[in-house]
Amino acid sequence: MKSTTRGRGTAAVVGGLGLALVLAACTAPPEEEGGNAGGGGDNGGEVAEGCEEYADYGDLSGTEVTVYTSITAPEDEAHIASWVPFEECTGADVIYEGSREFEAQLPVRVQAGNAPDIAYVPQPGLLQTLVNDFPDAVQPVGELAEANVDEFYSEAWKGYGTVDGTFYGTPLGANVKSFVWYSPSMFEEAGYEIPETWDDMIALSDEIVAAGGTPWCAGIGSGDATGWPATDWVEDVLLRSAGPDVYDQWVNHEIPFNDPAVVEAMDYVASILKNPEYVNAGFGDVSSIATTEFTDAGYPILDGECWMQRQASFYQAQWPVYQEDAVVAEDGDVFAFYLPPIDPENQPVLGGGEFVVAFSDRPEVAAFQAYLASPEWTNAKLESSGPGWVSANNSQDTSLYESPIDALSAELLADETRTFRFDGSDLMPGAVGAGSFWSEMTAWLATDKPTQDVLDTIEASWP
């Protein structure tokens, strides 16, 4: 069987020799295909060589699973390729459809009774909206998929896929936002060490200023979404200053948005972003942060004008845009270190990710959702992907990561001593998380609007 893309008619291209070998091992004569339990039938216990990990999905020959996502060509090819082992070992056919209008069209399709079997939902907030608006359409996660999540993911990921006590969305990809980008060669030449605590980072910033440099560069410009990088700063720092429990209460509005703990976190952020001696190297004064595109904000590091920029793992894609031969590695042109903790006993990780949601409870759909929560799928996806994709699966083969920053991200996500929390603005009501929080943080930097006024305005906007 071959994965197909609806509207494109192209067969999947399998990336990587390792994945090709898996496919060769999984391919079997028709009378031997399939598994023995759990998905959609059995074949008397016979399992094709190389397909042992797929046995619980059953023989799904002749079935189809439709998948709808926001991922379009050419980025869709890695996903399509990653499904081929499942298809070869179960006999199912996975039909792909990507759309740039995904978030607007998915609710329309569900309401019209034309829902896909599977959708990749990019935020827990959208998942909650779908469950609340269409309670009979979204299917609870099946036993096999839930067992995979329980075994291979931290408890936090299951919680973000749960609405009102029912588990609806299994984790897919992930990203880490708790990073500070820097130049390893600049640090080495100056004799600077990577800071291990927040106080160390402030002391390093002061040392850079004393040496005549500007330690930080930043930008929060992002078109209609201008402001979101500043919200990431607040969320990352609140996790460190107040801890995960207070963070959860804040995100869920169990404490007001303008709680004193949030004021304290904003003060920590202001000690960097509003310090005229610290910012904004290569761009201007504090107010320039509001008009500097986040995509451009880190470039002065490559020019030797800036020393540090806080931004997520996915920022690695920006460096070659500015300098084609830029190397992202511990000994390369740029790399990133973990945003240091305020309390060494509390080392959280802020991030984001997508979730797999089912709109059908057919056996092949349940089996495919379980496959997407397995190490087998994660490893197949890694072999078919380039840099920029990360999983929080704790049994993945991390040697398959091509990018050192992706490998570091996976290591942080799998570290059981660290507490993972999802991007707070993605969990809040849209009027706040993608509205007043963005705009008020922009005003905080652009016009020096007082912290208390900013937080009071956001609190008043909460639905």
UniProtKB/TrEMBL annotation:
Q: Which residues cross the membrane?
A: none
Keywords for the protein's UniProt record, in alphabetical order: Signal, Transport
InterPro entries linked to this entry: Bact_solute-bd_prot1 (IPR050490), SBP (IPR006059)
Q: Which Gene3D superfamilies match?
A: Periplasmic binding protein-like II (3.40.190.10)
Signal sequence region? 1-27
Q: Tell me the protein family, please.
A: Belongs to the bacterial solute-binding protein 1 family.
Q: What is this protein called?
A: Sugar ABC transporter substrate-binding protein
Naturally occurring in which organism (per UniProt):
Actinotalea ferrariae CF5-4
